[in-house]
Amino acid sequence: MTYPTRIRPRTAFSLPRELDRWMDQTLGSLQFGSGESLREWFPRTDVSETADHLTLRLEIPGIRREDLKISVENNMLTVRGEKKQETSSEDEIFYRGERAYGAFERSFSLPSHVNRDEVRASLQEGILTIRLPRREEAKAREIAIEGNGQEKRIGA
Predict the structure, then answer these.
(1) Using CA atoms, how far apart are residues 37 and 31, in angstroms rounded to an integer?
(2) What is the pLDDT of residues 50-97, one digit of tens each?
(3) Which domains, and CATH codes, for the chain?
(4) φ, ψ for residue 39 (rounded to 5)?
């Protein structure tokens, strides 16, 4: 992941979203002999930043807390998990199966200003929120300007 850039949410459908939907509809039903889906799934993620922290929000509905693992190693934050397929009765006939199941792994390159020792995560209503606070020395601060016996404070 590169340093996050600011985006504005769109209200109209964009070309990438349309292509994603087309790929899901076209390739999602193709399966290998073992029953595995041709496409690999991964949770969609929003990345945002404030003056104090960086936040990642991953959509993972249906995944339990005990089926998730989050790790930080060197400059990488990695989220691993598994969405287990529900079992159905033998007499149940499926006409369409669009939900994705299986293991996933997402890795994000962390900026240098993140305090890796204070990373916090919470799971609520299918959204995994990972909060990465800035190191104190990376936060904006005021700098005193000295000279001629006068001092002036400015924002950094």
Answers:
(1) 5
(2) 989 999 999 999 999 999 999 999 889 999 999 888 777 888 887 887
(3) 40-155 (2.60.40.790)
(4) -95, 145
